[in-house]
Amino acid sequence: MNSASVALTTDRAGTGALEGKGVDVRWLNCTAEVEGVGATPSSPSPSASARQVAQVDCRGRTVGGKDITLAGKVTKEVNGLCVRGDLTGRVGDRTVLQADGLGDCDAAPSTGGVPSPTKGAGGGGGARPTVTVTVTVIEYPGGK
């Protein structure tokens, strides 16, 4: 799981889910940080069976000028089409969305989407820097 694809997928799927609940989304901006990225060599690396978790924080605004928040934990991102986890969407002080999944996780994978970073690039040993990726996506109603 990588931060960029989690943020972008949450943005797209979250916008669709909010609009499905009757929210007129003017824009939504999501950031994600995958927990455990950048582990030092002295700490054990997560095994293939370990579950990675990304903290997601989305901020936005409705067409009417109300604040939108969509935040929570993502435990799985599927081909840029859906995210699974525990997410809560609010408009102003009102909760409008509580979901364990956003998007279409049953859809066939596409060839598009956000590619995963190459594993093991750069070689060498020692501590690796912590990487946090922020993706900003601005969507306008009716296109660009």
Write a structural description.
The chain is mainly β and 144 residues long. The protein has one helix spanning 3-20, and strands at 25-34, 54-62, 67-78, 82-91, 94-103. A five-stranded antiparallel sheet has the order 1-2-3-4-5, covered by helices on one side.
- Radius of gyration in whole Å, from Cα? 16 Å
Distance between the termini: 30 Å
Which descriptor suits the 3D outline?
globular
Q: Approximately how much helix is present in the residues?
A: 10-25%
Number of helices: 1
Strand content: 35-45%
Mean model confidence by pLDDT = 77
What class do helices, strands and sheet pairing give?
Answer: mainly beta
Q: Major beta sheet, specifics?
A: 5 strands, antiparallel
Output the helix-strand order. Answer: HEEEEE
**Strand order across the largest sheet:** 1-2-3-4-5
The low-confidence runs, each spanning 5 or more residues with pLDDT under 50, are 38-45, 113-132
- Give the total of beta strands: 5
Notable characteristics:
144 residues, mainly beta, 5-stranded antiparallel sheet, 1 helix
Layout of secondary structure:
Elements: H1 3-20, E1 25-34, E2 54-62, E3 67-78, E4 82-91, E5 94-103
Antiparallel strand pairs: 1-2, 2-3, 3-4, 4-5
